[in-house]
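Protocol step 4 of 5: obtain the predicted structure for the target chain.
Materials: sequence only (see below). No template structures provided, no constraints applied. The aim of this step is simply to have a reference model before the mutagenesis design in step 5. Sequence pasted as it appears in the construct record:
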Amino acid sequence: MAGDPQVLRYAAFTDDPAGGNPAGVVLDASALDDAAMQAIAADVGYSETAFVTDRDAAGDLHVRYFSPEAEVPFCGHATIATGVAWGHEHGFGELRLHTRAGLVEVDVVPGAGDGPPVATLTSVPPRSLPVAAADLAEALAALGWDAAELDPALPPRVAFAGAWHLVLATATPERLTALDYDFDRLKALMTARDWTTLQLVHRVGPADVRARNPFPPGGVVEDPATGAAAAALGGYLREAGLVEPPARITISQGADMGRPSLLTVEVPEGRDTGIRVSGAAVAIR
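Step 4 output (structure tokens):
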């Protein structure tokens, strides 16, 4: 239909259109209201679609993110996709994105050789909180997990770097591989607590993490790459003294879904400094 906005489709945190996490990107959403953006996100069907609603006099972008069912304050993989899509249209470099969660800076550089461009976002200042015992018990019950299966070296926390995520670490990789949960039960808990995804992780090594991310509040069973949760995890590890900043962590995600993804997390010094999350993005044809 004439006048409909152009929706670009990118896979983030991968160099393969069949991998990573797909995101919709609308680079000019200035004429769209909330209902129109929600309808487009539902039609696209990806876990999130990003909408650039304005470019202000300073050149900063104003961005909103919608899952198929609701708006979310911040989305990492759609930010990476937006940065690369904007770079393709307007040139690579530094961007400032105003989101509902706050200011997020993005640096986009051309890929090495024939590789796709790489974007690095710097999150808002992260923080984490203890999880209530009743909420933890309900989350474990919805997952079908036992508390004894958790890794005591990474205690459960609710972590934030633009959106809230419950972080649960498994002691074994097998527990993560066997993910099969009660969608409606987990959705009810997460919606009530304003948790965007669960950041389910297994620490393979000091700087090597495997992750899976249920996203029932957005109507999505699982996210194959979750930049916001990666940033939240980096902040949690720093706050808990589980990494020595400056540190670099690699997160592998999505392989269980057939969409392998790679996220690089840089944890700088300073409690209030944002976490940097990097990844490639490639257009889906």
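Step 4 remarks: The first strand starts at residue 8 and ends at 12. DSSP finds six helices and 17 strands in the chain.
Proceed to step 5.
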